[in-house]
Write a structure and sequence with these properties.
By secondary structure, the chain is an alpha+beta fold. The protein is about 15% helix and about 30% strand.
């Protein structure tokens, strides 16, 4: 009888001491941006694990962290990710700041898009404000003299006459009727 009681007590002590190892901490919180608006669909992940969730329509979340030393990572596209150590906190609120990225100039080419720095040929462009500043009847005439290597010629003097646009190096001219 003493042996059974001793085994039972040992088993009870083992169970009680191991329950702290598997204890999870439920962490809740709210994710907002710098304008105090909720960030909907932000990723909330326990770093180094596959445990994660997303914020709801109010920017709120709830996640189970394995321990108080766990690190919670909150991220969203276009914002700087933030990391928090759980510690003794059961509520972790986060304010995400917009990530300022310098976008390179993108050029649309005939069969796709490329970064301007990746092109090997010459690139010329005319902005909409430059075209609007010229008092002519159509946009093709406004480009006359603005693009190096591009020749814009009207077939005759009529306002509705067809226009030929020839790009240097091209064997043929492009005939355009721009109204």
């Amino acid at each position: 009888m003493k042996k059974v009681l001793k085994t039972f007590l040992m088993l009870l002590i083992l169970i009680m001491s191991s329950s702290g190892i598997f204890a999870q901490i439920t962490v809740t919180g709210r994710v907002i941006d710098t304008d105090q608006q909720p960030v909907i669909g932000a990723n909330v992940v326990v770093k180094g694990t596959t445990v994660g969730t997303m914020t709801d329509i109010d920017g709120k979340y709830s996640i189970n962290a394995p321990s108080s030393s766990s690190i919670i990572v909150i991220s969203f596209i276009g914002y700087v990710p933030q990391e928090f150590i759980v510690g003794n906190s059961s509520v972790l609120n986060a304010t995400l700041e917009a990530e300022a990225l310098a976008l390179g100039e993108v050029v649309v080419i005939g069969y796709g898009t490329m970064q301007r720095r990746d092109l090997t040929g010459s690139v010329a462009s005319v902005s909409g404000s430059q075209i609007a500043a010229v008092p002519v009847s159509n946009a093709a005439q406004a480009m006359t003299g603005k693009l190096a290597g591009v020749s814009v010629v009207s077939q005759d003097g009529r306002p509705d006459a067809s226009i030929s646009i020839r790009v240097r190096g091209g064997g043929r001219s492009v005939r355009a009727s721009i109204l």
